[in-house]
UniProtKB/TrEMBL annotation:
This protein's pathway: Protein modification; protein ubiquitination
Protein name as it appears in the record: RING-type E3 ubiquitin transferase
Biological source species: Microthlaspi erraticum
Zinc finger motifs (TRAF-type), residue ranges: 103-142
Homology family: Belongs to the SINA (Seven in absentia) family.
Reactions accelerated catalytically: S-ubiquitinyl-[E2 ubiquitin-conjugating enzyme]-L-cysteine + [acceptor protein]-L-lysine = [E2 ubiquitin-conjugating enzyme]-L-cysteine + N(6)-ubiquitinyl-[acceptor protein]-L-lysine
Keywords: Metal-binding, Transferase, Ubl conjugation pathway, Zinc, Zinc-finger
Gene3D superfamilies: Zinc/RING finger domain, C3HC4 (zinc finger)
Biased composition (Basic and acidic residues): 1-13
Function, in words: E3 ubiquitin-protein ligase that mediates ubiquitination and subsequent proteasomal degradation of target proteins. E3 ubiquitin ligases accept ubiquitin from an E2 ubiquitin-conjugating enzyme in the form of a thioester and then directly transfers the ubiquitin to targeted substrates. It probably triggers the ubiquitin-mediated degradation of different substrates.
Domain TRAF-type span(s) in chain numbering: 103-142
Amino acid sequence: MAGFSDDRRNETSHKRRRTPASTNKSSGDTEGKNKRTATLMDLDVLDCSICFDTLTVPIFQCDNGHVACSTCCKKLKSKCGTCSLPTKSRNRAMERVLELLKVPCENAEFGCSESVSYAEMSRHLERCVFSQRPCPFSGCGCGFTGSYEDLVEHSVSKHDDTLYEFECGESVFIYPKVGERVVLKEKNTGEGGGVGRVLVVVECFETPQGRIFSASCVGPMFPGFMRLSYSFTLRSSSGDGLCFESSAKSVREVSGEPPSEHFMFVPSYMCPDYKLRICITWTNPFRSRRTTTS
Ligand SMILES: [Zn+2]
Ligand SMILES: [Zn+2]
Ligand SMILES: [Zn+2]
Ligand SMILES: [Zn+2]
């Protein structure tokens, strides 16, 4: 449903609202008889001191004990953001705390009733159907944020004019412009076919040497279940061609930044006069859901 999330938009600040976690266990705990439990009054202590995001394993620290998440460590080239000392050591004690701490899903207010290990929270949020996802259409400024289901409805009702449709295993010509996104929605082909609830976003970035194309899936993906694979086929006006295959990473929000891996690179001399096709397929080691089979 469109619109209703506009009220929520302001709540989705960089820093999420937290509920203090109680680690008290009920009597049903088998080995917990002699275990002591505790309540953590403020979950903010488990945030990275640099980006303020939730710390995830591995956790690094400098000699002064300032902790940093692995993303910040990489970004700052293992230099502490507070005191500039190298952040080379792991903080195993903190990592253990994260693993043992169970907290309610951050989407509890939207209906998720799961309790998740703190260390697993970000992984859970990626596939939690209650996670709030911003509208992936670029430049529309609609400001919509909603659950994945709402996002699919919103894409159809508000962005139908620019929304592409795809059928599993069939090629679609797309025309992504630099800095813009192409959003494709799986066609609802009925029985045994597409369920029409998958959104794939293709992004295009300009670099000095050429263009970068990548695709991601804005929605929950369940590990061990289905994988969304895609291929790009590009043919330039000079007759040269490129083919690229990868699987679409499941994201909550399209980052808008050039990816560091899993992208197709098109050298400048082939740009911008080319035709680009994308072919998206579901792959599953146990079962096939290709709509191309009758
Ligand atoms: Zn960080
Ligand atoms: Zn430091
Ligand atoms: Zn959840
Ligand atoms: Zn929108």
